[in-house]
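Input/output pair, single chain:
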Amino acid sequence: MRARRIRTAPVRGRLAVAVALAATLLGATACTSGSGSGDGDGQAKPAESKYQEGRLRVLASSELSDMEPVLKAAKAATGVTVELTSSGTLDAVEQIASGKADGKYDAIWLSSNDYLRLRPEAAGKLSSQTPVMSSPVAIGVKPDALARLGWVPGEVTWSAVHEAVAAGKLTYGMTDPVRSNSGFSALVSVASGLSGAQAALTEADVRAARPKLKEFFAGQKLTSGSSGWLATAYTKRGDVDALVNYESVLLSMNRDAHTGLTVIRPKDGVVTAHYPLTLLTSAPAGARESGRVLTEYLRGAEAQKAITERTLRRPVAAGVTPAAGLEEEKRRELPFPGSLSVADGLLASYENELRRPSRTVYVLDTSGSMAEENRIGRLKAALTELTGTDGSGTGQRFRDREEVTLLPFGDGVKEVLTHVVEPGGPGPALDAIRGDVKSLRPEGGTAVYGSLKAAYEHLGKGDADAFTSIVLMTDGKSGDKVKDFDSFYASLPEGQKHTPVFAVLFGDSDRKELTHITELTGGRLFDATGGNGSLDGAFEEIRGYQ
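Output:
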């Protein structure tokens, strides 16, 4: 396919099922022990810029928001206040390796340090690393799918899962490996299991497994930047057979949302998250002592019992019984990639070759108010950032095979500009997108709902075998009627209702209005207002959901 530019004439201008999952499944924002966690607006709270005695600033995997009750108990017992700032694992790795975490955080608490250890520039930045709990990658399968496949849970292998997917008998959801360690661990588990690797994954192992991996990922119907949103989307849709995620997440879904999943740890092995609390060498002496005291408390019998009961992760302290539902039979630990090049190569293959391609429509407010406070300039900068540079790494630009549509609007849709990023030759499409972004001009009103309708109509005309999504950015309140859009959405074919709208709060946009849109369509709200985050940060985070 060639990059293509489509112009159209201007277009004028089901109530969502709310799934209540406990905090163990939420984790899009930072949380501070004792102050509560955020509500999933897409932006983490910044850590304190300066060290304070008795406080430990921790860059952490987002799912650790479920540890807040345990950390409150830890504060009462030790006097140490923990400030968690959530992050995707690979983004956290980049902050540490680049030195951006120095002085900003005292410790990191990721689901795994395996990828971090592959970065030579990060080695000297890590001090003590102490596992606190563990959870293996697993597959949660619906009862009807399990019965249809005739599986005996304790006997299922990765090869059996692949065969079911390749035969069109099983579909599933998984988080994005580039932004979520549960997704990366799942990717490594599948690659190791299907390649038959007996030692650290090599490039030859990945090459040998590539045909099976492509068949496997053809069955992925849901993607996400976080386990919490994935669980909610999975429950809302109802037409996906399984989820690949950490065992603790799947069991928490059964407990909190009554999903009834059978949780399977493949017989041939798994990749396990050990959640090491890791102090940074740049941390002040007082913070290192606070970290030592906190770690000692968290590995004690009382805290370990609370951790396994509350989070359904496995205790690491001898003598502490795992929570009910955690099978004690051990599984082989599948081999992690042996080098950074293999790990990055596996991620690049997933992004640009193995996974289903993406089709995304960016519905962009270019009304007159976007001229204020250089809002249009900030929008242009954020979109241009997504086109990357010649040296962009995996996940830093639009993917190969991705169809990107810009739909700027004012009083109505101004034009529809579509480009497809060609594998092996992405330059022309990326250049064309940059040119279209540069030409955006602020004028007119704010026809949000009519423009969303046009976006759904556009996506309905293309390839259905893709991850589809709509990104809505507006700096104001809609000038057209919500009832018209709600009626339109209710009339869509069921398959099209699975296209979520990811909306960005910006400028003077209406939170209530955008919340309604995201809840109706199964999307999510990202906050780029004031001190809550930046527009480019919101757009970048949304990439994990596309």
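The radius of gyration is 23 Å. The chain has three domains: 23-133+274-315, 135-272+335-347, 357-545.
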